[in-house]
Every structure is written in structure tokens, then in C-alpha cells.
From TrEMBL:
Cofactor annotation comment: Binds 3 heme c groups covalently per subunit.
Source organism per UniProt: Pseudomonas indica
Cofactor: heme c
Protein name: D-sorbitol dehydrogenase (Acceptor)
InterPro entries linked to this entry: Cyt_c-like_dom (IPR009056), Cyt_c-like_dom_sf (IPR036909), Cyt_C_IC (IPR008168), Cytochrome_c-type_DH (IPR051459), Membr-bd_ADH_cyt_c (IPR014353)
Residues involved in heme c 2 binding: 198, 201-202
Location within or outside the cell: Cell membrane
Residues that, per the record, bind heme c 1: 50, 53-54
Gene Ontology CC: one annotated term: plasma membrane
Residue ranges of every copy of the Cytochrome c domain listed in the record: 36-139, 183-297, 334-424
Annotated signal sequence range: 1-19
Keywords, in A-Z order: Cell membrane, Electron transport, Heme, Iron, Membrane, Metal-binding, Repeat, Signal, Transport
Membrane-spanning segments: none
Predominant location category: membrane
């Protein structure tokens, strides 16, 4: 790993540390056990993606303040660093377990289920202990930062009804492995249902914001939900409505890198989950997830083809040659060609004028892309408005697409999207300017 001279220097520098008073054999064993627990806690915090909601800025990990939209108004995540005043420094293990698994903060304050405790309720005691060690015994720096009140107006912000909610919808039982299934399947089930809480986004919600199913035995599990202005598609085993038509390798690649050519790329909240959580999972854990997904009962939505089966390469650049360009100030959009022109002017430089993308998939093809084969325009509009930003520069799988919310207005994005759906996607989807306005970042 290191050059000889440099290694030598490192060794000299490290020597005084290595020569510190020796620990007794028991201490050493105990500290080894601690550090194992500790790194397991770190891994689990990644798998559970606590940072997705508790880290608003990378300079203040876990200090809270992330706004999460609920039907009643935004709820803000709290500070879960070990700061005793503003964070959870005073939490005992029991306090921590109650907050994470039952949604009750120290002192009895009920948490909104925007904190996914209905999924974390299934966590094993060992795993909660490892998380506790990581968060409170040295893995996370204390940061003093007051938590912010929710935007939910009085009297809806009263928290006692949440006790009733828990009574109706919270299942406090920890995960119980199914004896009729393999160890790997059970590991996958645990990851999907509890730690990685895929259902938080992918399971439809009922009238009280509850997930309608919490495991594969209940109807509707992972049948598609919407969260934070994005659609999290049906990922049941159904070959058309879900991911039944994806190969194991395609699913693994999607979870590990966020991009599977010919199928989908992960943007928005899924891009973040890949970036901060799934790409750190061990291969055997990702494989267990895929194994389990295969067994989630199919939920059909009646669609005729899978989301990735739409579209053909375009040749509009040829057709448009020699047609008159709309002059500035000329009334109304040119309904025939405005979308094609916007595509050629704004998107084709990366996605190619035929829409086939780059040969290596770095710029993905637009046909055979689930965002364009979906039944709702939501994710395509989000991608055009906000672009794609996944991974940091150091990561080999980083992907970046610019946002167009400043350069294109609502009507332009609507004509562009209509063109894209017609050419490369599901031609039944129609978009108007109001659909765009609703999603435009404010
Ligand atoms: C999907 C978003 C989300 C994820 C993921 C998430 N949290 Fe939370 N968490 C929240 C929100 C929102 C609150 C505040 C809820 C409220 O104020 O009612 C919260 C509150 C808490 C609290 C209560 C602290 C206090 O005293 O106010 C603890 C402890 C906590 N989370 C720990 C965790 C841990 C540990 C993880 C990872 C295993 C995690 N959270 C993952 C959204 C999330
Ligand atoms: C924070 C919300 C969130 C969580 C948690 C989440 N997803 Fe997603 N997922 C999404 C969104 C949103 C999309 C659509 C992304 C896009 O269109 O770019 C998506 C897309 C996908 C797709 C692609 C489906 C398609 O047809 O394009 C797969 C597969 C997937 N998720 C699997 C999972 C699995 C497995 C987990 C848990 C290990 C998970 N997701 C957790 C929000 C989430
Ligand atoms: C500078 C290059 C660039 C430009 C310009 C560009 N894109 Fe992209 N686009 C990308 C990259 C990179 C990705 C993400 C690839 C990945 O996730 O691996 C992407 C992804 C996408 C996706 C898939 C997103 C998903 O969630 O599945 C769609 C759809 C898309 N672009 C449409 C467009 C449209 C429409 C335009 C023009 C308004 C456009 N792109 C302009 C580079 C670009």
C-alpha cells in the first residue's frame, strides 16, 4: 500500500502511540468487542440511512433540521448527536430503543411517523445496541443545535393523537424469521422491512399516512408509494407492474451503483438512498435483498408492458432540418415541433439526438427507461426540474445531470415532456403546465 520510506515514517510516528501502557488481557478483549460493536453500529446506521433524514448539511452530521413533507405540513428531524442539551446525550439504551422502535422520545414526547419507527420496530435488540454504541459512545460528534418545531398548525400539531395512531398501526414485535425460508431470504426480509425500510417509500399509504402493509404477508407491500414529490415505483415481483422482469444482476447493479442501462437510473430520494446507504452494503446483503424482493407477492396495476419496454430511437433531427423556426415574439408554441426542438437544444448533447445516450451508459438512453414508461409524469418532471446528482467526485459511480428549473418555464417543460413520452416512453401520459408548476422547487 505505501512506499518504503513513507511506511517507515508512519511506523516511527505511530511508535509512541503503540508504546502506550499495555492494556490487561480482559481490557483488550473488551475493547476489541467494543470496536466490533462500534463498526457494526456504523454499518447499521448506514444500512438504516439515519443520515438521510437527520443530516441537513455534511458539516453537521446527525444534527437534524431536515424538513420532511407530510400531508399536514413539514416535520423537522431532530438532533440525534450525543449533545446532552439539544441532542440525545442523556438517552439511556432503553430511551434510545423506545425512540427508535416505538416513536417515543425521552420524556414521553410522541414522534411523528415521518421517523420510520414502524419499520425500525422490527430491529433486533443486538442491532439497536450496536446503533446505541455508535451514536452515544464515540461514533458521532456532539453538535449543539436546537431542533425546530414542525410547520403543522395547531391543533393538528398536538402529539397525543399519535398514541392512538400507534395503537392502531404500530406493531411492536421484533422481526421473526420465517422457518419455511432460507437464512439468506430471512436476512433480505430483515433488511427490506426493518433496516433499509424500503416500504417507507415503496408501500402505498392509507388515510392516516400509515403504510398499508409492513411485510410480504400483507397485501400491497412495496406496491408503489409517493414521498416528497417523487413516485417510488411498484417493486413487487410482478413482471410488468414491478421488477419481475429485471435480472438479479440488474437489480444488484441498480442498488449498488444507481444505474442499470436499459432499465433505470436512481434520482431524487432513491439516488440519495443509493449514495448514502445501499452502495455501502456488503454484496451478500444486497443479494439477500434481491432474493427477498423476488418473493414479494406480485401486485398488478393492469399496465400492458413493463415500464422499461417503451420507446424507440428518434430521427427528428432529420425531419426538422429546413422547417421554419418559431421567431421570438411569435404567438403560441409550435405544437408540432417545440418539444423536439427543446429536446435537441437542451438534452441531446448528452442523451444523443436519437435519445440512445452514450454507448457506455454514462449518459443513459431515454427509451427503455422506467421514468418514461411510468404511468405518471412525476419523476420525469422532477428529473428535468432538478437534474440528477448522485455520489461525490471520488465515487466511480457518480452521476450528474444539470437542473433545468431556471432555464425552462412550465409550458416549455410540459411540451418537452409530452414529446419525450410520445417518442421514448408511454404515449398515454400527457402533461400540462400546471403539473410542472406543482413540482417546481420554491
Ligand atoms: C425517513 C426519515 C428518518 C429516518 C430514516 C430516521 N429518522 Fe429519526 N427522526 C425523524 C424525524 C422526522 C424525527 C422527529 C419526529 C418528531 O419530531 O416528531 C426523528 C426523531 C428521532 C429521534 C428522537 C430524538 C429526540 O429526542 O427528539 C431519534 C432518537 C431518532 N430519530 C433516531 C434515528 C436513528 C437512530 C435512525 C437510523 C436508525 C433514524 N432516526 C432514522 C426522521 C427519520
Ligand atoms: C427514501 C425513499 C426510498 C427508499 C427508502 C427506497 N426507495 Fe427505491 N425508489 C425510490 C424512488 C423515488 C424511486 C424512483 C427513482 C427514479 O425514478 O429515479 C425508486 C426506485 C427504485 C427501483 C427502480 C424501479 C424502477 O422500475 O425504476 C428499485 C428496484 C428500488 N427503488 C428498490 C428499492 C429497494 C430494494 C429499497 C430498500 C432496500 C428501496 N428502493 C428504498 C424511493 C426510495
Ligand atoms: C450534461 C449532460 C446531460 C444533459 C444536458 C441532460 N442530461 Fe439527462 N442525464 C444525464 C446523466 C449523467 C444522467 C444520470 C445517469 C445515471 O444516473 O447514471 C441523466 C439521467 C436522465 C434521466 C433518467 C433519470 C432517472 O431518474 O431515471 C432522464 C429521464 C433524463 N436524464 C432526461 C433528460 C432531459 C429531458 C434532458 C434535457 C432537458 C437532459 N436529461 C439533459 C446527463 C444529462
Amino acid at each position: 500500500m505505501c512506499r518504503p520510506v513513507f511506511c517507515f515514517l508512519l511506523w516511527v510516528l505511530a511508535f509512541p502511540i503503540g508504546a502506550a501502557p499495555r492494556l490487561s488481557a480482559e481490557d483488550e478483549l473488551a475493547s476489541q468487542a467494543d470496536s466490533r460493536l462500534f463498526s457494526r453500529g456504523e454499518y447499521l446506521a448506514r444500512a438504516a440511512d439515519c443520515a438521510a433524514c437527520h443530516t441537513a448539511s455534511p458539516n453537521a452530521p446527525f444534527a437534524g433540521g431536515v424538513g420532511l413533507a407530510t400531508p399536514l405540513g413539514a416535520v423537522y428531524s431532530t438532533n440525534i448527536t450525543p449533545d446532552p442539551k439539544t441532542g440525545i446525550g442523556n438517552y439511556s439504551f432503553e430511551d434510545f430503543d423506545r425512540a427508535v422502535r416505538q416513536g417515543i422520545a425521552k420524556g414521553g414526547r410522541r414522534l411523528y411517523p415521518a421517523m420510520p419507527y414502524p419499520s425500525y420496530a422490527k430491529l433486533s435488540e443486538d442491532d439497536v445496541r450496536a446503533l446505541y454504541t455508535y451514536f452515544l459512545q464515540g461514533g458521532v460528534d456532539a453538535i449543539a443545535r436546537e431542533s425546530r418545531e414542525s410547520d403543522i398548525p395547531w391543533p393538528l400539531d398536538m402529539r397525543w393523537p399519535l398514541a392512538v395512531w400507534n395503537g392502531l398501526f404500530l406493531d411492536e414485535k421484533r422481526f421473526e424469521p420465517r422457518a419455511d425460508k432460507s437464512e439468506r431470504w430471512n436476512r433480505g426480509a430483515y433488511l427490506v422491512q426493518a433496516l433499509a425500510h424500503c416500504g417507507t417509500c415503496h408501500t402505498p399509504r392509507g388515510i392516516a399516512f400509515q403504510e398499508i402493509a409492513l411485510d410480504e404477508r400483507q397485501e400491497g407491500f412495496l406496491a408503489g408509494g409517493s414521498l416528497g414529490g417523487w413516485d417510488a415505483y411498484n417493486i413487487t415481483s410482478h413482471p410488468k407492474a414491478g421488477i419481475g422482469g429485471w435480472s438479479d444482476e440488474e437489480l444488484l447493479r441498480y442498488l449498488r451503483t444507481g444505474s442499470t442501462p436499459g432499465k433505470a437510473q436512481a434520482a431524487g430520494p432513491m439516488g440519495e438512498a443509493v449514495q448514502h446507504s445501499f452502495r455501502y452494503l456488503k454484496d451478500e446483503d444486497l443479494q439477500a435483498i434481491v432474493d427477498y424482493l423476488r418473493s414479494v407477492p406480485p401486485v398488478d396495476d393492469g399496465r400492458p408492458k413493463a415500464r422499461y419496454e417503451y420507446g424507440a430511437p428518434a430521427n427528428d433531427v432529420v425531419k426538422l432540418r429546413g422547417t421554419p423556426v418559431r421567431q421570438p415574439g411569435q404567438a403560441g408554441p409550435d405544437p408540432q415541433h417545440e418539444g423536439a426542438r427543446l429536446f435537441l437544444g437542451n438534452c441531446a448533447s448528452c442523451h444523443h439526438w436519437s435519445g440512445e445516450g452514450a454507448a457506455d451508459g454514462f449518459y443513459p438512453a431515454l427509451m427503455g427507461n422506467t421514468v418514461l414508461g411510468a404511468q405518471s409524469p412525476t419523476n420525469l418532471l422532477q428529473v428535468i426540474l432538478n437534474g440528477v446528482s448522485r455520489g461525490d467526485e471520488a465515487s466511480p459511480d457518480a452521476a450528474f445531470m444539470p437542473a433545468f428549473h431556471d432555464s425552462l418555464d412550465d409550458a416549455q417543460i410540459a411540451s418537452l415532456a409530452n414529446y419525450l413520452f410520445e417518442r421514448f416512453g408511454n404515449p398515454q401520459v400527457k402533461v400540462n403546465a400546471e403539473d410542472v408548476a406543482r413540482l417546481r422547487p420554491r
